[in-house]
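Entry 12.
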Amino acid sequence: MCSFSTNISKPERIVDVNGEAYQLKRFLGNGRHTEIHAAKSLKTGSLVALKQINKKYSDALKNFQQEIQFLGKLNHTNVIKLIYAQESNFTILTELAKYDLFHAIYERKKGLCRQVKNLIPPQLIDALAYIHSQGIAHMDIKAENVVFTNATTVKLIDFNLAKKIPINEMGNEMRIFNSNGTRITWSPQKYDRTYFFVSKDDIWALGFTLLEIEIGNPWAKPDMEDRNYQQWVHDPLANEDFRSLAMRNEEYFCLLRWMLNQHEDRRCSAAEAKESVYIKQWLQKKTK
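Predicted 3D structure (tokens):
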């Protein structure tokens, strides 16, 4: 987990990374076992995000090595770029973002304009399709883990919980049981504590995040006891927010319904979402 903050950090301190001194300038956020600061190289003056992982927790080394392995493998415009990692003090340097999507949705006075909202889905769907093509599942997609590096570019961050997509000897993805990640974005399968495909769990979490951009938090839990979720599954047009979205852009609404299908076998993959009518129409408009 990572959440950005505008709070000023405690008195600035120096962190040594591979013999280069970085001055911690501003506290950005933290997770269960991590802290992230904006940091400035005293040698070059460049600004980076400096993430430090608490060595004390049991899986620290394993998660650290896994995160840098995945980030080192990935090279995509909409995935945060790894600059350097140092195992001796569990420190990761990445490019610095301006703010996260959660902050943009709920805390900025003006919120997100329609033009920016329209730019986000194609970028994140393309990023997720790429990540899955590399055999990796993110496992914790949410608004806090999407950042803006400029006014129109978003990137996925925080691969601390990421996993290799398990594949059997026939080359097919296998289901797993896992309760990591952020509860609000859990798929119905994860919520029900059953085995699930990690790629389909990722696409659910992304669908939830995209829907959240449009209407705020759509439901509290993917359970029929939740009225909003029940309406999403059985009669979305009975819900004013869902109906408004459908009327504004039918193709996008249909894509979100596909990404957020309660049945895992009927839910689209990231690659299928990338080939959807909505994304193709968006690309056609972009090239005109």
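Annotation: Residues 98 and 199 are 28 Å apart (CA to CA). The chain has a mean pLDDT of 92.
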